[in-house]
Amino acid sequence: MKSFIRTAFALSMSMILLSCNSEVTIPKETLLDKIKGAWAGQAIGCTYGGPTEFRYCERIIDDSIAIQWPDGYLKHYFDNVPGLYDDVYMDLTFVSVFEKLGLDAPTEAFALAFAQAPYPLWHANQQARYNILHGVMPPRSGHWEANPHADDIDFQIEADYAGIMSPGMVNAAAYYCDSIGHIMNYGDGWYGGVYVAAMYALAFVSNDIGYVVEEALKVIPSESRYHQCMADIIGWHQQYPTDWKKTWQLCQDKWGTDIGCPDGVFNPFNIDAVINSAYILIGLLYGEKDFEKTIEIATRCGHDSDCNPASAGGILAAMLGYSHIPEKFMANLREVEDRAFAYTDISLNKVYQMSMNQALQVISRNGGKVSDKEVTIQLQQPQTVRLEQGFTDLRPKERLKCNAPIADAGSQTFTGKGVVVGYTFGSWGTDYVAKVEVVLDGEKVETVELPNNQHDRKLELFHKYNLSSANHTVSFSWLNPQDDMKLSITDLLIYE
How many CB atoms lie within 10 A of CB 36? Predict the structure, then answer.
């Protein structure tokens, strides 16, 4: 798999080690302060937006609704809702592998650590876990043809590690996103992580938010849907510099329709990386380098309202430094800095030093210098990563309701170029694995395994894209039914 990193991805280390126009020298204590700020800002932002996550979809959280920040807030979530911090403990999975195996750790080490970890997953992450546990390894595990959630936010919320370990080195940040980001995402879903990581990297060496968001965007292909949306946000901010709600509405009107995620299509729910990255950008641009204002605006944009302020808060705090995060937030943070995040043995205080050690290695590897008291970073001119787009030539057409036990569902007929079939068990939690034979247009195409265990579950029963644009028939046979199990087909999402 090491050759996978070397040859399968277009972005190589040779692109990272290109000559640059300038370098910057900073004290080690300043670098550590910024690294600590990045992690602290992420944890604070996640907590700040936690109570409103996906409670406000396709609508702004109105100013009349106060966002609370009581004493002991992080401690409360650590004690009672530790799963809120999936943004952080997902990152820590990858930081830990780098720590154990070094900067050249093979892709499968990250994939297996992620897939076998005890924490719950959703969307692109969960489908990637299922794929990996069934022998479908990256990059196929995140490819849109194998993962209907490939454009979702997943890698965007867990790419912080790449920017934090690559201070000032925007191409290095993109490089360390490549193999890991394709574990669970592709196309716009991958770009979400690359862009976030690039903004982190630049925030270490620039105090200009406008410069950071525009320079980082150079790593994303201009032909992509993702780049075009972010460029719109930057342009609308220039046009309406004091009215973030105007920019939000323009973004919703133009970019607010989900295409890939089966949960979001035709529903007021959008976990797509494009729209949620736009909310990070709105927070950063309209927040005007004010930490609380930045995370508040990113939260009030709605949808994934804990993840977006987490990213915005982390990027801004990397710029400002840990020592400049307002005391209002730090008082709560200090209560948990020595506590390990759920499903890990890593605390904030521990990851601060882990990321510092990795950043020093990346600086040295990319032509910089590390001395006892300072580092010299070779700044990098952004290099655009390759163009990749998922769900090409596909548009959602309709959702056909079924809501019938699989034995009664019979043959389902549809007209279109793609189909995603939803299902449900009557209840979850056993070690039972259902086996379902899928017949499409008279031919057996797959025997699907459906674990009843939530950790290992498959998100959709079946999906198939790139069909001929014609009439199709699909049917399902439950090969190992059990009397105490109920398995039903819920619906068919059809593409044209």
Answer: 25
Of the candidates 311, 307, 316, 298, which has an alpha carbon nearest to the alpha carbon of residue 61? 298
pLDDT, tens digit (0-9, with 9 covering 90-100), for 251-274 = 999 999 999 999 999 999 999 999
Q: What is the CA 193 to chain-centroid distance, rounded? A: 6
| Residue 378 backbone phi and psi in degrees, to 5 | -80, 110
Q: Which of 81, 50, 100, 6 is nearest to 304 (CA)?
A: 50
DSSP letter string, 37-60? HHHHHHHHHHHHHGGGTTTS-SS-
Distance separating the N- and C-terminal Cα atoms of the chain: 37
pLDDT of amino acid 21: 52
Can you say whether residue 91 is alpha, beta or left, with left for phi > 0 and alpha for psi between -120 and 50 degrees?
alpha
Per-residue model confidence (pLDDT) at position 378: 97
425 forms beta bridges with: 487
**pLDDT by residue (tens digit) across 229-250?**
999 999 999 999 999 999 999 9
Distance CA 298, CA 162 (A): 22
Neighbours of 301 (CB within 10 A): 32
The pLDDT of residue 1 is above 50: no
Specify the 3-state DSSP secondary structure of 109.
Answer: helix
d(C-alpha 414, C-alpha 430), whole Å: 33
Contact status, residue 60 vs residue 73, Cβ threshold 8 Å: no
Class of residue 35 by CB neighbours under 10 A (exposed 0-12, middle 13-18, buried 19+): buried
Judged against a pLDDT cut of 60, whether residue 2 lies above it is answered with no
Domains and CATH numbers, the chain: 2-378 (1.10.4080.10), 396-495 (2.60.120.260)
pTM for this predicted structure? 0.95
**Cβ proximity of 494 and 464 under 8 Å:** no
Residue 12 has pLDDT above 50, yes or no: no
Asked if 430 contacts 452 with a C-beta cutoff of 8 angstroms, the reply is yes
Torsion sign, CA atoms 113, 359, 330, 314: negative
* Cα–Cα distance, 358 to 101 (Å, whole number): 11
pLDDT surpasses 50 at 24: yes
Question: If DSSP codes are grouped into helix, strand and coil, which group holds residue 185?
Answer: coil
Q: Is the pLDDT of residue 4 over 80?
A: no
**Length, in residues, of the chain:** 496
- Residues 462, 415: contact at Cβ < 8 Å? no
